[in-house]
Amino acid sequence: MEDNPNKYTIKLDKSTDTTDGIDTYNITWTIPIIYQLLQTKAMDDDFPKLRRTVVEVPDTPFKMKVSFYGNAVIMIYYLSSTSLFMKWSLEYRLPNFFNVLPIKDYETVQANKWQHCLGIRLKDLSANKTAPLYLSFKLIVSHAFKAGICSNILLPYIQLSEDFGNLLTDDSFSDVTIKSAEGIEFKAHKSVLAVRSKVLRAHFEHSTKENITNIVETLWDTEVLRDVLTFVYTDKVPRVYDAPEKLLVAADYYQLDRLK
């Protein structure tokens, strides 16, 4: 379900350094009454039903997206319509909640591919029921290097896919356990999860609970989680028609674009 983007406000401040070939975009996205969005029936269900809004930033190549899930969880993304060599930072604010993600290193961003920035679990919302959420992006684009061109040609790495698939049934070298909503455990590998999903990688980058305990608890049904892991390891989804709506939500949550 997608919200009406017209009720959100975007403020843009752009500057250009012609000497170094740098464009800096300071974009502030205001999402009003975030408390009400997170208290709708869809947000309160045990299984997180996807709700999202996308806004296009005028006079820039960028779009922003926020996906809303159950348990007061939101995921934040940005997208560029062209391939860019860039870096970014993000500040998010509520009246009683504030944090800043430091600026990242330069990287090549592929055109028309959603880039995951952050997941937030807003447990302690402001007592002010009309409080907005402010998202302030700083996007720095360098024109000194030409962004790489992404090829869409798929190569038939059949044996490689099968070998990685075998890792799911052989836990000899696993270093993390992923649990379904029913408590079924899957033995996995941090390096594989991290390289395939920026959302999963975020679990292991800092001193998070998941990185310390080596256990990742999820809200996904066992069959959905099995299909997600199968795709992560093999790029294949053997039971895509079993629960397509739930699988779509999981694919969006983990930013697995080719699974959607």
Automatic annotation (TrEMBL):
The keyword Ubl conjugation does not apply. Residues 174-237 form the BTB domain. Gene3D superfamilies: Potassium Channel Kv1.1, Chain A. InterPro entries: BTB/POZ_dom, SKP1/BTB/POZ_sf. Keywords: Membrane, Transmembrane, Transmembrane helix. PANTHER family: SPECKLE-TYPE POZ PROTEIN. The keyword Endoplasmic reticulum does not apply. It comes from Operophtera brumata. The chain crosses the membrane at residues 68-86. This is Roadkill. It comes from the Eukaryota.
